[in-house]
Amino acid sequence: MMESKAQEIILDCEIKNIEKGSLKNLSIVKMSCNDIDVNFDIIDNINIFKENEKVKMLLSKSKPIYTSNDFCAHGYIVTELKDTSITADARYTMIISLFGLLVKISNKDSLLRLFQFHVMDHIYFCVKKNT
């Protein structure tokens, strides 16, 4: 399910996989949010997630309310790439930099157009545990 308010997106997701990143003490969390795939970097000592866990992902232009059970960070939308090499269908990947940690959100449609965001928008990215 996707909820959309003014400049705020909430997606129901499931954490599919958590794998070691290429840097020390860094993991990559891979989530599926229906047709949208999300991969994000997280430092191991603040990783609060487990595989197969149900979560909500939030993208917002304004600072959201969050608790110690959530991972929230802010940064900037860096770019959106279109990849046609994988299949006949194009896939778009929006990249957000959380001051070093990266978030990659992929979908068959342009996420910038779909969510009405722009490159260099300041954005909050949260993954909240379902309670």
From TrEMBL:
Q: Which GO terms describe its molecular function?
A: DNA-directed RNA polymerase activity
Record's signal peptide: none
Question: Which terms are listed as keywords in the entry?
Answer: Cytoplasm, DNA-directed RNA polymerase, Nucleotidyltransferase, Transcription, Transferase
- Give the enzyme's EC designation: 2.7.7.6
InterPro entries in the record, alphabetically? NA-bd_OB-fold, RNA_pol_Rpo8
Q: Give the enzyme's main class according to its UniProt record, as a single word.
A: transferase
Top-level taxon of origin: Archaea
Q: Determine if Cytoplasm is one of this entry's keywords.
A: yes
The reaction(s) annotated as catalysed by this protein in its Swiss-Prot or TrEMBL entry are:
RNA(n) + a ribonucleoside 5'-triphosphate = RNA(n+1) + diphosphate
GO BP: DNA-templated transcription
Q: GO CC annotations?
A: cytoplasm; DNA-directed RNA polymerase complex
Give the matching Pfam families: RNA_pol_RpbG (PF16992)
| Subunit structure as annotated in this protein's UniProt entry | Part of the RNA polymerase complex.
What does it do? DNA-dependent RNA polymerase (RNAP) catalyzes the transcription of DNA into RNA using the four ribonucleoside triphosphates as substrates.
User: Which protein, by its recorded name, is this?
Assistant: DNA-directed RNA polymerase subunit Rpo8
Q: Which gene encodes it?
A: rpo8
